[in-house]
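__Protein archive entry__

___
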Amino acid sequence: MSAYPDFVARFYDVVYREVRDAADKAYYVNKLVSCSGPSLEAGGGTGRIFLEALNKGADVHGTDNSPEMLSVLRGKLEPCHHHRVRQGDLVNMDLGKRFDLIIAPFRVFSHIIGIDEQIRALNTVHDHLAPGGVFIFDLYVPNLKLLLDGLPPTTDFDGEHAPGKRLSRTTSATSDLITQITSVKMKFDWEDEGRQYSREWSFPMRFFFRYELEHLVARSKLKLKAIYGDFSESPLDSGSKEFLIHCIRA
């Protein structure tokens, strides 16, 4: 699974507050808060979803494989809640605890490249769920034109990371249709203490198709409950941009 550089962790909140929160944050926070038992956010990062759910009374725990991201999250937590977050990922986590709900928001599963690791991740989730527990994760529906043409360098964030200090992010991507891997490059440019900085981060992401997802779940110990097409849980159709997958431990 992809490592997150320190500069990505530093600016994660300010970027994704603008480019992602409106899409999924309320949905996942509501799921965590309405869960009657303990819950887990896998790939919780800097706490974009985790912190709001915790502050609203959810009995939520969190993991992330990036020490840089976890460092940012722990810096926001009261010491009494530090025990709730641990380093780990979907493939290898062993928390010694079961949960009524596990979520893996915002393409966490796309960072698991190999099929064996994907099956192992699903089985690891199964083993961490209480009987009848639910696993929810999301992936993007592939845009075939974008896969073929690639994404040219595109500025998807241009603002400030602190008052008077500019930050921009430029993203580009190319995809291999045989391996189903998209190679993503993100370039961060920012101002700090009167100096200009520029850093790049490249990483792979797996893209998935509907029946591939159904077969993956069928090969695991989990049972597929539904695949929705958006965060309103609308039926999947040709206009859907999201795969929202619900699985259960039967």
Remarks:
- The mean pLDDT is 97.
